[in-house]
Amino acid sequence: QSCAATATARPQVQVSSRMSMRFVALALLATTAHGASAPALRLRGGTTTKSSAVVAESGLTPASRCLSTRGGGVPSGVMSKVDVPLLSYFAFWYLGNYYYNIFNKTAAKAGGGSEYAMIMAWIQMAVGAVYALALWILPEARKAPAITFTQVMKLAPVGFFTAAAHAGAVFSLSAGAVSFAQVIKAAEPAFAAAIGYAVYGSSVSRAKLLMLVPVIGGICIASASELDFTWACLAAAGGANVAAAFRGQENKKAMAGDMKAAIGGGANAYAIGTLWSTLLLIPTVFITGEWQKMDAFLKVWEDDGLPGHTGFRFNLIMSGLTFYLYNEVSTLALGKISGVTHSVANTAKRAIIIVGCAIAFGESMSPSKMAGCSIAIGGTFLYAVADDILPQKKKSA
């Protein structure tokens, strides 16, 4: 019976491998095609065409020129009204997030749940760090940031809170149901508002504060009906939200002045944050005591999972790669749309991930949990657009 189960499981792993590798290949094309440069096309005699000059000034690579549908020298018709690169970013962002949750949870199940959560979090970040360094080293891939040591140190707080947010998220996704952890993660705006106001003196409009009521209420409803509820999952996801709120504020501080120009864009900023996170996650392996179980983890790694499981190495490595790629593609998408649109898209993504992962892993989706989830996500959406729907009145002098 066990042999039959193994035989039937292998084709599924192979299919998943093929699908995920296709996604990664396309995502790599989208991200590497974003920042490189290429010379303009010239007519015989050395003169540059008007359309090619426009394309050259835009900084598009040959790959992104094929995708681009705006500006001079591009196809006309219906496709000229469609921003294909932006649609590609959204597709890779959503798919990458979905695949990350699938790979991460599958690896956790094969490796013993949250027993090695910090080691898993570090490996995932390390995979992203290797990818980021490779882009800087390889020719014509991505220009490395020209920053000083002092500027690198200014980004250390961003890396610290990025590491804390990732560690908390990995633990929560490993300790409980993915759908439940994602419901808690939907409350990020509430944590961001509270920490921004209490620690950084940021002002929050009354409209936004009111929208936090359905966010918190929806989470309470979903938590009360969660069959796979664990306090560890709730605490870790809440801690990840706190760290994410601090990361956002520290990132704003760090990117002020000439820092943004020195780094060379959001993709490089995320790469530096990943490198810092990889370094700062190492102490968590010792703080949590997982280093004492390193021999057991290496045995799981060598056996490709606990007895009765397989695919641990593949799913763990792919979770690290998809995590980095979907976050970077999200950064690229933010550069082409407004913050409000990005928030709306992130809210829709959260709903898709919750439902998709619940179906994939057979997690409980009771009517009360669905209702709480819908209320929380709806509140998150309204929080993102509250100031646009109900703009604040300017105080008269």
Number of strands: 0
What is the multimeric organization of the chains shown? Answer: single chain
Figure out the total of helices. Answer: 18
List the helices and strands in order: HHHHHHHHHHHHHHHHHH
Distance between the termini: 80 Å
The low-confidence parts are 1-15, 36-76
Helix content: over 70%
Radius of gyration: 22 Å
Q: What structural class is derived from the secondary structure elements?
A: mainly alpha
How would you describe the shape? Answer: globular
* Main sheet specs: none
The average pLDDT score comes to 78
DSSP strand content:
under 5%
Q: What are the SSEs and their pairings?
A:
Layout: H1 2-35, H2 50-58, H3 62-67, H4 84-111, H5 117-137, H6 149-154, H7 156-175, H8 178-185, H9 188-198, H10 206-224, H11 231-254, H12 259-263, H13 266-280, H14 282-287, H15 294-303, H16 312-334, H17 339-361, H18 367-389
Helix pairs in contact: 1-4, 1-16, 4-16, 4-17, 5-7, 5-13, 5-16, 7-8, 7-11, 7-13, 8-11, 8-17, 9-11, 10-18, 13-16, 17-18
